[in-house]
Write a structure and sequence with these properties.
With 155 residues, the chain is mainly α. The chain contains 7 helices and 2 strands. Helices cover 61% and strands 5% of the residues.
Length: 155
Amino acid sequence: MSGIDLQRALLGSAQARPIIFLTGQGDIQTSVQAMKMGAVDFLTKPIDDVHLLSAVDQGIRLDVAARRERAVCQSIQTRLQVLSRRERRVMEFVIRGFLNKEIGVELGIQEKTVKVHRERVMKKMGVRSVASLVQLVARAEVQSDLSRLAKPQAA
């Protein structure tokens, strides 16, 4: 397997790490391809120690940041899994900007019940505002089927 093949295989996987290419036979096309796929650097032999250490340092910083972000997203996903199906539905409407009354109509429940579910969502997700909830869900790149939830038009 070539370095480019390995990079392609790791791209987007949980095992993805910053990659630094070191080669004695690199060509421009391969180096451009590697960089477009996210390589930290593409170094050709003989390798300058300063450039190598700089690339390794940058790779480590990128890896630390990526791991931190994955941990945050995993934490958010864990909190989302604690939500009941009804709480999840209420949350979907809340982050789309629906009012409690509108959510109640859509789900066929009382506004007071919506408020209870909404409060539980906020508590379980560890947020105090709808804006924070929206940011949290967006950060985790939660893919919920929100397209079918159209906000009712004013009459």
